[in-house]
Amino acid sequence: MSTATLKVRVARKAAEATDIQIFELVAADGSPLPAFSAGAHIDVHLPNGIIRQYSLCNDPGERHRYLIGVLRDPASRGGSQAMHDSVHEGDLLQISGPKNHFPLAHEAQHSLLLAGGIGVTPILCMAERLAISGAEFEMHYCTRSPERTAFLQRIRNSSFASRVQMHFDDGAAAQRFDLAKVLAAPEPGTHLYVCGPKGFMDAVLATARSSGWPETQLHYEFFAAELQQSDGDTAFEVRLASSGRTLTVAANQTVTTALAAAGVEVPTSCEQGVCGTCLTRILAGEPDHRDAYLTPEEQAANDQFLPCCSRARSPLLILDL
Prior knowledge:
This is Oxidoreductase. The chain is of the alpha/beta class. It folds into three domains: about 5-95, Beta Barrel (Elongation Factor Tu (Ef-tu), domain 3), CATH 2.40.30.10; about 110-220, 3-Layer(aba) Sandwich (Rossmann fold), CATH 3.40.50.80; about 235-320, Roll (Ubiquitin-like (UB roll)), CATH 3.10.20.30. It contains seven helices and 18 strands. The chain has a six-stranded antiparallel sheet with strand order 4-3-6-1-2-5, with helices on one face.
């Protein structure tokens, strides 16, 4: 897995809405940036040493810049706070090339885009791409209030403004988002895309699945997840297929931590099971999936897992390491 980074300069930092800043990033040497597609994100290496993922929200046709939006999260683990307080115009940052685990399905006849809060960043990029290509879509954007709505004027001034319905928590009851109604009748050619806070996404996906939406028509990307821990967690072993070396993972330890302590480095980024950076093949054994990255079908296959958060149901996992 490539860990190469790009050096970029913060060309612009500006307030977009209450507690939301936008950052325009350009190549430090002035060269074109790698191409990306709607739904892509980059890993940003922050001054405090941590890495966070941010969706690109500018036109994928642009090669001279990347645009990201960052919400100051009161429950921040250091990422959004560092972006807001420690990153300034003119600063140099290291980022990854674009990655896309949330692409548009080209076979879709109609796209239903659902955004909650700062989850609008990849959704907006999708809407603009679909509009340019002449595809059929509708978008619902849920936020707390107009003052906390990123890219409000950009959407209102767009060619597809009539296809976007805004829903504000502090608005009139008539404009509130009726999730059950919107997802009540899945159509064979309609694909659903959702991004936003975990509670919003959980509600959308649960409603869609209970309404009969096929998993193949559901597309989602989590920004963060709650690490699942259980009083019933017990120790287990992992074996490295290349050497036969066997390591013990303690009850209060992650697999990546146990591997690192033994000198085996697995690339990680979010460490919450949402980005897929540490995805590792399993050759034998049954994992206990605790991620928000793999689809239910991929989890059921039990041939890969995310060792930053997932554990084992069997006494031993043999890993393709």
